[in-house]
Design a protein that fits this description.
The protein has 803 residues and is mainly alpha-helical. Among the domains are: 316 residues, no CATH class; 243 residues. The chain is built from 24 helices and three strands. It has a three-stranded mixed β-sheet, with no helix packed on it. Strand 2 and strand 3 form a beta hairpin. Helix 5 runs antiparallel to helix 11, helix 13 packs antiparallel against helix 24 and helix 20 packs across helix 23. It is elongated and about 200 Å long. It starts with 20 loop residues before the first helix and ends in a 15-residue tail after the last strand.
């Protein structure tokens, strides 16, 4: 009995985790955060904080110890925020006072060009690093917006998948319940066809013996018919042979007298002629064994109505299915009523599984969450747009520094002549130096702001990763949420209306990740006794009682009556196997006549042709022709008849020699079959009725076993629930938190490298800017002579006092 497979619901595709270069970059950020926060997940600390309503006074030390990595980074960041503006201010004042390169004086040495190139290459490399970080910042800034916008849609798709899953559970249960129509229909078909089925089973058991015996009895009758026929053939052939033998013998006597008379008249003229003593029959077919009494016994047996009795027995046997049908009409009606009760009992199981109602509550909660998401979606998009603008501005600040460095790197070497006096450097070279100084100035101005943003995002995103995303990914967060009484009023078992179950989030996720059924995942065996819900034994017992109380009585099968049995015994004991046809068989080996009639006729013709017997020539020739005619009669009628009787005797002897043994064997088989039918029929009816009943009840037991298997292992496989949790993890952590962390990491990367950029820019600027004074020399051995420029166009204005 085969059942259809349940159709799986179609789900929308879930979010895909990051891959490629983005994943590599995120892994780099994760490695940095793991270095900052190497401590294990603070299960005990968080548990105490949550239970104390986040009263942190008592746990301040533990919190600080746990967050020591973030605190160190925070201290460094704050130090950066404080020092960078101060250093920039002091640096500016220092330059205004003519120090820190503000005097714009440059010494010319042999190593000047080497130093310039070295600093140029380092600044170029630093600028590329800052540019790479800024590109990552631009990308991750846009990725945050993309993640936020896409996450809302993907989140709704995920909720739709959950609703699809929840809505599929009642359908799958209904599918299993509705499948009960299969065993009901099979049972109804079986009970309606109880005659052909049960009757056929009974017929097969009885027929194994009865049909074999009837076939043997039928063959026995055929053998007796053949025996009677062969006896009749022997008798008829013998009578015909005797008649022909008498006729030929009479003809031979007549012709013998005629030839003898002719030869006597011929006297001396026919001397030396043949003698007529041999013109007689040598074989004598005058006697045959008498088997008329045996033949009469066989005919009496065949005439006893045995043929009609055999056909009647066949009909009684073949009518068993119809007999069963006629005698079980009330049983069929009763079982059909009980099948209706079984169907109603199985249908009641649907309403007794309350998990469906619990899932409906979850469905309502999902609808509420989905509605809130739609409600806040415009606000989220608007605020994210503001955030995107701020991120773009911050990235542009860094880009401004990069551009200043790039323009300085491009313009500085343009028009620069290492042999030219520093006070007379070209305008492009001087402009490049100014761009370097502008980049340094912008770095001092905005670096503290960048670091401030990095610190805020670092603390938010870093802690989100270490306290939420990382333990979520390794399922440690689920174990933490399973802490008893962690959240007041939160009980997963009560939410799902499951009593007497210690259901945990971690076990729920673990089982769903393996795509286990909801029955196994929620451990519903402790709450629901499925055997009790699907217990239809009361109704199957009624079916069994109805079938077992059915009385089936079959007509007796009689293979042979007493008279026919006696007749068969008489035939068997009649000595039919001892018939002796030796005399007649011996006569068949002799010649038909003592003298060959053809040779004798030739002798007569030869005698007639002699001149001495010319007066008797006509008589002799006529007599010779008569002999030839007699020989032709012997060859044409007597000899074929001899062959016929010989063949009939042979057939009769062959069949009659085995007839007693065959009859005795058949009678023994009939006795055994009659005993079997008389003693075993009722047991066969009971046994086959039990087999039929077991088959009938087996339909329902097979359905119950299948239904239990489906309900406990196949229905509501909760893989979609685990995929929903994974999708939420990907959305919250993989898309938003990781993108946020990648953004501040990129900004922090750029901000940190602004320090070497400032140093190298300031150092490189003096090699390209036009100096006020310089030291030149004509030979390496000459002392330096300071040349003072009279130009005042590049002097920084200073505050002076009147004299």
């Amino acid at each position: 009995m085969a059942y259809q497979n349940m159709s799986s619901p179609v789900y929308k595709p879930g979010p895909a985790p990051e891959s490629g270069g983005v994943k590599v970059f995120n892994d780099m950020v994760h490695s940095f955060l793991d270095l900052v926060q190497p401590n294990a997940f603070p299960t005990d600390l968080l548990t105490k904080l949550i239970k104390d309503n986040f009263q942190v006074q008592e746990e301040t030390n533990k919190i600080l110890i746990y967050e020591v990595g973030f605190l160190v980074a925070l201290a460094i960041g704050i130090l950066f925020i404080v020092l960078m503006p101060l250093v920039g201010l002091f640096f500016s004042c220092c330059r205004c006072c003519g120090n820190c390169g503000g005097r714009r004086h440059q010494k010319q040495t042999k190593k000047t060009d080497c130093k310039r190139r070295f600093i140029y290459l380092f600044l170029f490399a630093i600028t590329l690093v800052i540019l790479a970080g800024d590109v990552c910042a631009f990308f991750t800034n846009n990725k945050i917006s993309t993640a936020v916008n896409n996450s809302l849609d993907v989140f709704n798709d995920t909720l739709d998948n959950m609703k699809t899953y929840i809505n599929s559970v009642p359908k799958e249960i209904d599918f299993i319940i509705s499948a009960s129509t299969i065993p009901i229909q099979k049972g109804n078909d079986s009970i309606l066809r109880i005659g052909p089925i049960l009757g056929g089973m009974i017929l097969a058991q009885i027929g194994t013996v009865a049909n074999t015996t009837l076939d043997s009895l039928f063959n026995m009758v055929n053998v007796l018919n053949s025996t009677a026929k062969y006896m009749s053939d022997v008798k008829n052939s013998f009578n015909s042979l005797q008649d022909k033998q008498q006729n030929i013998s009479k003809d031979l006597r007549i012709v013998q007298q005629e030839i003898n008379s002719t030869l006597t008249k011929c006297a001396g003229a026919c001397s030396g002629g043949p003698t007529v003593d041999g013109l007689t029959l040598e074989a004598n077919f005058s006697t045959i064994p008498d088997f008329s009494d045996k033949m009469k016994l066989i005919q009496d047996m065949l005439g006893s109505g045995i043929d009609s009795d055999i056909q009647k027995a066949y009909k009684t046997l073949n009518d068993i299915p119809e007999t069963v049908t006629n005698q079980t009409r009330s049983t069929v009606s009763g079982v059909q009523d009980q099948l209706v009760n079984i169907k109603n009992k199985i249908n009641e199981t649907r309403s007794r599984i309350p998990v469906v109602d619990s899932l409906e509550n979850v469905n309502k909660e999902i609808d509420g969450v989905s509605g809130k998401v739609h409600q806040y979606k415009p606000d989220v998009a608007r605020y994210d747009h503001y955030r995107w603008i701020v991120g773009i501005c911050l990235c542009c600040v860094i880009l401004l520094v990069v551009l200043c460095n790039v323009f300085g790197l491009l313009l500085g070497p343009c028009g620069h002549n290492s042999k030219a006096d520093p006070t007379e450097r070209s305008c492009p070279s001087n402009s490049g130096g100014h761009f370097f100084m502008a980049g340094a100035a912008f770095s001092f101005i905005f670096s503290w702001l960048l670091m401030l943003v990095v610190l805020v995002l670092f603390l938010a995103g870093g802690n989100s990763y270490t306290l939420i995303c990382k333990p979520w990914g390794n399922q440690q967060l689920f174990k933490f949420l399973d802490t008893p009484n962690l959240i007041n009023g939160f009980n997963l078992s009560q939410m799902l209306n499951i009593k007497d179950s210690n259901l945990s989030i971690s076990s729920l996720y673990s089982n769903c990740e393996k795509n286990e059924s909801l029955w196994t995942t929620l451990d519903l065996n402790k709450m629901f006794n499925l055997d009790e819900y699907l217990n239809i034994s009361k109704y199957t017992d009624e079916v069994a009682g109805t079938v077992e109380n059915t009385q089936i009585s079959l007509k007796g099968i009689t293979f042979i009556n007493a008279n026919q049995r006696d007749l068969v015994n008489n035939v068997s004991k009649s000595g039919i196997d001892a018939l002796n046809f030796g005399d007649i068989t011996q006569q068949m080996t002799k010649n038909t006549t003592k003298t060959d009639l053809g040779s004798f006729a030739n002798q007569l013709e030869a005698l007639a042709n002699q001149p001495a017997a010319a007066n008797f020539s006509t008589e002799l020739k006529n007599e010779a022709d008569t002999l030839r005619n007699i020989q032709s009669s012997i060859d044409g009628s007597l000899l074929p008849e001899i062959k016929n009787i010989n063949r009939s005797i042979y057939n009769l002897q062959v069949i009659s020699s085995q007839l007693p043994a065959s009859l005795n064997k058949t009678l023994k088989s009939i006795d055994e079959a009659q005993t079997f039918v008389d003693t075993q029929t009722s047991d066969i009816v009971k046994n086959e009725s039990k087999v039929f009943l077991n088959t009938l009840l087996g339909y329902f037991q097979a359905y119950i076993d299948w239904a239990k298997t489906m309900l406990t292992k196949e229905v509501a496989r909760c893989g979609p629930v685990a995929k929903t949790v994974d999708a939420a993890h990907i959305l919250a952590c993989g898309y938003i938190v990781d993108s946020l962390n990648a953004f501040w990491f990129s900004l922090g990367w750029c901000t940190i490298f602004l320090i070497p950029s400032i140093i190298l820019s300031v150092k490189l600027a003096k090699y390209y800017r036009r100096m006020k004074t310089s030291e030149v020399f004509e030979d390496s051995d000459l002392n330096h002579v300071e040349m003072v420029s009279t130009s005042h166009q590049f002097l920084i204005p200073r505050v002076t006092t009147k004299s």
